[in-house]
Amino acid sequence: MGFDQYHEPPEELSPQTRTFARLCASLTEEAEAIGWYEQRLAVETDAEAKAIMSDAQGEEFKHFAMDLEFLLRRSPRWRQICEGVLFKDGDIVEHGEAAEAGSADGGGDADGETGAADGALGIGSLKGAER
Amino acid sequence: MNHLLRRLAPISDAGWELLDDEAGERLCGSLAARRLVDFSGPRGWRHSATNLGRVDAVDSPAADGVSAAQRRVLPLVELRSEFSVSLAELRDNDRGAVDADLQELDVAAQRIAVAENVAVFHGWAKAGIAGIADASPVEAQPLGESAEEYPRSVARAVEALRAVGVDGPYGLALGPDEYTRVIETAEHGGYPLFDHLEKILAGPIVWAPGVKGAVVLSLRGGDFLFESGQDLAIGYSHHDADAVHLYLEESFSFVVATPEAAAPLSP
Questions:
Q1: Structural element, H or E, at residue B253
Q2: Which residue of A has its CA nearest to B13?
Q3: What 3-state class would DSSP assign to B163?
Q4: CA-based nearest residue to B195, from B183, B179, B207
C-alpha cells in the first residue's frame, strides 16, 4: 500500500497530525465500504447472502462511528459543528449553516495543527510512552 | 472562540507554538499517573461527571406504587495553574530568539502535574477522589532506608499483588528522592538497580513528583480509570503593558475500580 493519506511530507507532520490523517483515511474507507454493501444488498436476491452482507455492513457502521468519534475528540471545531447537525430533526442544511457560523470563531482548524484546535496540548495517555 | 479565550491574547502564532511546545514538554516529563493508569477522553469542557453505574435510594414522589433512585456520579474537578509571560520575551521569540525565558510556565506546569499525580496516587477527599495508594487494602510496607533494600520491598509488593490474583505487568511510581536513589545506585557487581527493578516488575519505573514513597500497581488495565474532560491546555486571563497572564487548565475525574491492584510502599 502507499502512504497517500498524507498530503504533505510525513516527516514534516507531527505524530498527532499523522494519526489524525490515518483515521481520516480509515473513515473514508469505512464510508466507501458502507456504500458498496448498500449496492450489493440492493441487487442480491439470495436471502442468506443478503443476511451476511447486512451483518458485514453493520460492522462498517460501527467502524465508521468509532473512527468519527476519535476524530471529533481531537478536533473540537469539527465536534462543535457535528453537535449542531447530528441527531437533530429539521432542516439539515439550516442546522449545518448555523453550526458552522457558531463555530467560525472557534479557531480549531484554522490553527492548522489538530489537537491544538481548542488550545489543548494533546497530551492524553502516556502509558507506554518513552520517558 | 472557546472558554480559553486564546484569540484575545496578544500572542502571535509563533508565540503560541512556543508556549504550547514548552508546556507539553514540561508536562510530559512530570505526569506520572498518565504513564501508569488507563486514560479516557478528552470528553470536552462541558463534560461534568463520570458515570459510576450506581444509584442511591431517594424518597419516591407522591405516587403510590412508584419507587425511585438517583444516579450516583463523580463530578469532574478542574485544576488551574496560573503564570505570566513577558511580552518582551514573546516579541524576541517572534524575532527568532531561541532562549525565551519561560520559567513561570515551567513552574506552573510542574505545579499542575504534581497536583494531578497527588490526586491519582494519594487522593483528594474533598473532590471525592480516592487515590491508588490510599484505596489499596494492602498495608503499606516500608520501601527501605537505603536503595539496596528496594528490590526486596518491590518484589514483596509484586508478590502481594500476584497472591490476590492481580496479574502484571506491574509499574512502579517512585517519589523524586527515591527515584534519584535508584538511578544513582549500582548493586554488587555493578548491575544497575534500575534494571534490576524493571526485571522484577516487567514494567516501567516512573519518576512521580508528588508521590510519597512508592506505589507498585498492575498495568493490565481496567483497574485505575482517569477520565479527562478538557485535557491540559493553556488559556488566556488578561494582559498589561509588560506581560500576558495565562493559565494551564484541565478537568478530570479518577476512579479506582480495583483497590487491590496496587501496593503502596512508604518512604
A1: strand B243-256
A2: A111
A3: helix
A4: B183
Contact residues on chain A for B233, CB-CB shorter than 8 A = 118-121
pLDDT in tens, B2-52: 899 999 999 999 999 999 999 999 999 999 999 999 998 888 888 899 999
AA letter at B44: G
Residue reference for cell 516512573: B206
- Rounded Cα–Cα distance for residues A56 and A67 (Å): 17
pLDDT exceeds cutoff 80 at A106: no
Average pLDDT over residues A76-81: 84
Q: What is the pLDDT of residue B93?
A: 95
Task: Give all strands (DSSP E) within B24-147, no chain letters.
Answer: 38-40, 49-57, 69-75, 77-86, 141-142
Q: Give the strand pairing for B214-218 and B170-174.
A: antiparallel
- Please give the average per-residue pLDDT across B49-57, as a whole number: 94
Candidates B48, B32, B33; CA nearest to B253 is B48
Residue in chain A closest to B249 (alpha carbons) equals A120
SS3 B255: strand
pLDDT at A101: 73
Mean pLDDT of B132-143: 92
In single-letter form, the type of residue at position A123 comes to I
End-to-end CA distance of chain A: 32
Alpha-carbon span B185 to B183, nearest angstrom: 6
User: How high is the pLDDT of residue A111?
Assistant: 36
B20 touching A, CB under 8 A? yes
Which residues touch A104 (CB under 8 Å, ≥6 apart)? none
Amino acid at A55: D
| ipTM reported for the complex, 2 dp | 0.86
The residue among A112, A110, A78, A115 whose CA lies nearest residue A8 is A112
